[in-house]
Amino acid sequence: MSKILIYAEKPSQMRAYANALGGFVQKGEFYVKDNFVLTSAFGHLIDLKEDTAYRGEGRWDKSYLPLLPELKQYQYEPKRGDEGRQERLKKLEELFNDPDISMIYVATDPDREGELIFKYVYNYFGCKKPYKRIWVSSLEDEIIREAFKSPKYAQGDPFIENLSKSGYIRAITDWLIGMNATQAASLQFTNGEKLSMGRVQTTILKIICDRYIKNKSHEKTYTYKILAKHTYNNIEYFSESPIFETKEQVDNVFQNMLPNHTFLSYEKKTEKQSPPLLHVLDTLTVVANKLYKYTASEVLSSAQKLYEAKLISYPRTSDPYITEEGFKRVKGFLSKLVSDFLGVSDFEFSENPKSVDGSKITGSHDALIPTGQTKGIDTLAEQERRIYDLILYRCLESFSKEAIYEKGVYSFENKETIFKTHTNKLLDIGWKKYTPNSKSANVSEEEEEDKDKSFVLELPYKKGDSVNIGDKSIREIESKPPQLFTPGTLTDSLVNLGKFLQEQSPDVFDELQGQIDLKGLEIGTRGTRPDIIEKLVDNKYIVLEKNKYIPTEEGLTFYNAIKDLEVVNVAQTAKLEYDLKQVSEGSLSVSQFYSNLKDYVTRIVHGIFSKDLKITMRKIYGTCPACKQGSIIEGKFAYGCNRWKEGCQFRINKEIAHKKISEKNVEDLLQKGKTSLIKGFKSKAGKDFEAFLVLKEDNEIGFSFEDKPKTVKKTFKKKK
User: Fold this and answer.
1) 3-8 and 101-107 as β-strands: parallel, antiparallel, unpaired?
2) pLDDT on residue 79
3) Residues forming a β-bridge with 425
4) Most buried residue among 193, 620, 649, 684 by CB atoms closer than 10 A?
């Protein structure tokens, strides 16, 4: 009997499908039902091969750089370092090649990455079986069943083909730039250290360092205002002059002021503030960081857990809109949901929310919304519950009516200088009634954003009336440095590249505006940015202190070496992102994109090789006792010699006998040959013991008990 293979992205997704569709019986690693076989990947199972596939084995060398394989030469291989993935790949190969299976239903995550996860495996196996695309926007049972009734896309559909092409070429782009830039910079700038470079990673580092340097090098400047104090019916109010650029200007006006203003006019207007659009992952990150100090990776992790718990829709969306049909569905459950879990019992939907517009959904998903499912909400961890509540609050905001204010301006004149008093009267709070604030988020008052302060003042003056000045003063306005990036403000800048350039690099903005459409451009993707930022932290290029990203000494050293290179040129990054977007939309061919990419990578490598400098990124703990030439630096698993490429194998593992070794221990071994007494070692039998670590004559690390050395087995040397 002909069978259909359903291919999910991960086991949790596979189980959700089995439960929703019903009737499936688990058989080992997969599920079966009638003529269906349901299986899954473990995320990415296939990777691009390493550079040695195109240049041969051997150490890095400038001679083959830039390394630019032809587009058809790229090779793929099973993902390394995970036996579970290797075993899953073998089982999938059996299923993909099973002659009884005649059709594949692709049910990976509904986005470019999900498509790539399938296509990597499909093409790696050389599979020719037809497939259809299941598009599941949430893991609710009803949504899953509906999606499987009628697969949304057939094989060859332009949308799917462009999605697949853009996934492949983006992966190749990141690999090609990262590989060439990393090797070129490591060879040119260091004596054996690896400098991790990446298209998105290094650009983000530059943006963070640029802001940090501008903040620290800021020189204070001052402007000035005159404040005049008045009283009417026991109500005090102030009128303000325009801003004066110099102290001389303001002093001259201040000293020559009359004791009374002359009233000129009162103007008022009604101002409406529209509700915000629904959340996407990036706007959710901005709010969650402002209120709770959560990082982008924490928000993504929580949103993913909520999605897998069937509580929210797919989180990696780029569109803050939902369809009219989706809105009708949300209206059916939202009021009860917010009443039960937010205590909001008086919510009323506005007639035509701006976030309800299917024609504006440009990507593959609509906005981040709750599914209406409630099972498990009360048992969520605090972080997941807060993220869930923020999504609910944004629905209330977005589906509410406008906030309405009456803005007033009283104008006065004093010896040809105009003074003004501004009033603000709230007429209808509208959507702002549901805005989550710092009080509910338990953060300090100093960090609370400006609230809509109401200042109502009714003055009966007529034009020409004299208004007494009770007191007057000069207000000194100190210029503020650009603020250090928080996870929220960094995310906002990276996803609004045009706005960021216009504010921070107007020259670059002007240059690009006539060449490309900056609307919708961002640096990186919402699915990869959080991990890339975390990688900068893991590599010790930046740290997060008091919710601010600060470059480390190593990060600034790296930045100073690469800040003028092509690889971190924000204008070029924007152009590349624009071209990638054009590929995904089908308006730029992959071959033309790749031709441009090779030129770009060539400029990157030549630019690096044209710079004559050497840097030391990592802390040096001492001279290598084995080769006597290299320096001991910190690696991922051990402290080792930076001449490892030349063959020096000396290393001190970061963990010995289940005990983490401190930097002080390493320094003592290198400088004194022996550490102080260390407690907390654990024997193979699981018994605790204490000992000295010693550097033996053969440069092995050994234990010493009352100065009697005992050799540590060479198993400590295996992991590199």
Assistant:
1) parallel
2) 85
3) 406
4) 193
Q: What is the pLDDT of residue 243?
A: 97
Rounded-to-integer distance, Cα 396 and Cα 278, Å:
9
Residues 6 or more apart from 620 whose CB is under 8 A from it?
631, 632, 633
Amino acid at 195: L
The set of residues, in sequence order, having a beta carbon less than 8 Å from that of 300 and lying 6+ positions away, is 281, 285, 315, 526, 527, 530
Mean pLDDT of 606-622: 86
The H-or-E segment that residue 476 falls in is strand 471-478
Q: Looking at this protein, which amino acid is placed at residue 672?
A: K
Question: Are 595 and 583 a contacting pair, CB within 8 Å?
Answer: no
Residue 423 per-residue DSSP state: E
Shortest CA distance to 311 belongs to which of 396, 394, 389, 365? 389
Length of the chain: 720
Find the helix or strand (DSSP H, E) in which 709 lies. Answer: strand 708-711
Give the C-alpha separation, 397 to 277, whole Å: 8
Residue reference for tokens 């001492």: 622
Q: Are 410 and 276 in contact (CB under 8 A)?
A: no
How far, CA to CA in Å, does 59 sit from each of 76, 628, 643, 650?
21, 21, 12, 18
User: Is the pLDDT higher at 306 or at 635?
Assistant: 306
Query: How does 401-419 read in b/e, with b if 16+ C-beta sit within 10 Å?
Result: bbbebeebebbbebeebeb
Measured CA to CA, the distance from residue 545 to residue 6 in angstroms comes to: 46
The pLDDT of 186-209, averaged and rounded, is 89
Partners of residue 133 on adjacent β-strands = 106, 153
Single out the residue of 196, 66, 198 nearest to residue 576, CA to CA. 198
Of 103, 116, 146, 95, nearest in space to 4 by CA: 103
Tell me what pLDDT residue 629 has: 83
Measured between alpha carbons, how far is 299 from 719 in angstroms, rounded to an integer?
33
Query: Cβ contacts of residue 237 below 8 Å, gap of 6+?
Result: 229, 230, 231, 421, 457
Selection from 165, 196, 179, 174 nearest residue 54 by Cα:
179
Q: Is the pLDDT of residue 706 over 80?
A: no
Q: How far is CA 105 from CA 38, 133, 247, 444, 531, in A?
A: 9, 6, 73, 51, 30
- Name residue, tokens 């003004």: 420
The pLDDT of residue 508 is 81
Give me the DSSP letters along 642-691.
TTGGGT---EEESEETTEEPPHHHHHHHHHHSBPPPEEEEE-TTS-EEEE
Determine whether 150 is exposed, middle or buried from the number of CB atoms within 10 Å of its CB (0-12, 13-18, 19+). Answer: exposed
Smallest CA-to-CA distance from 576 within 531, 516, 634 is with 516
Runs of H (alpha helix) within 190-323: 201-216, 247-255, 281-292, 296-308
Average pLDDT over residues 692-716: 72
The alpha-helical segments, DSSP class H, found in 399-543 are 438-441, 487-495, 497-504, 506-513, 529-538
Give the three-class secondary structure for 408.
strand
| Amino acid type, 681 | F
Cβ pair 468, 259 in contact under 8 A: yes
Cβ pair 257, 414 in contact under 8 A: yes
By three-state DSSP, how is residue 429 classified?
coil
Which uninterrupted H or E stretch holds 482? none
Element (H, E) at 694: strand 688-695
422 pairs with which residues across the strands?
A: 409
Place 438 in a pLDDT band, splitting at 50, 70 and 90.
low
- pLDDT > 90: what percent of the chain? 63
